[in-house]
Predict the structure.
Amino acid sequence: MFSPAPDWNDFAMSRRFWPLYGLRITTPRLELALPDGDVLDELAAVAADGVHDEASMPFSVPWTDGSPRDRARATFQHVLGTVAEWRPEKWTLSLAVRCGGKTVGRQDFMTDGFPVTREGETGSWLGLAHQGRGIGTEMRAAVLHLAFAGLGARHVTSAAMTDNPRSLRVSEKLGYRPDGLLVESVRGEARTVLRLRLSREDWEAHRTVPVEMAGLEPCRELFGV
């Protein structure tokens, strides 16, 4: 069960010293924000309930192996770790995705050297109960808007297993192009990963989701831009 949606304004003190808590990205159905308090608990609960069929592993790092409690704790530690380890030259923005007042998944945007390269990578997951509704495409479109329109990115990359058609379809719809293959060891097996790259020009040509941002200006120093 989800707890009642918290009032984002409860975190005014957090925003004072860590303005990323005030950043909001919205689409017609979604709100993306750095989770704190009850929202982080909700996000951990969504992970505990499962994000993919246990017979498969769509991630290079199999963080979803283990018990529901393990998945919840891994989610909790990941988000807090991104805040603790943040530096303007290397950071991971890990956003909770909310739809209709419920937390449904997580959308990350990560980079190393963004002030110089103007390039970052997306990663995400969505709770099993919320898949198949186009939310994955919409939340990726939201963070791409932040990257290109908000932060001036030149390219954004992503990657997916070649046997993960849902993720590859999201990238295709948003304009990513194939950028080579690599082989990784996952659960003791060789898995082929397709790298993907999205240029600013291709992003602009494939934009279909209206996106709005709020609270970005106080965060620019932290993003290194």
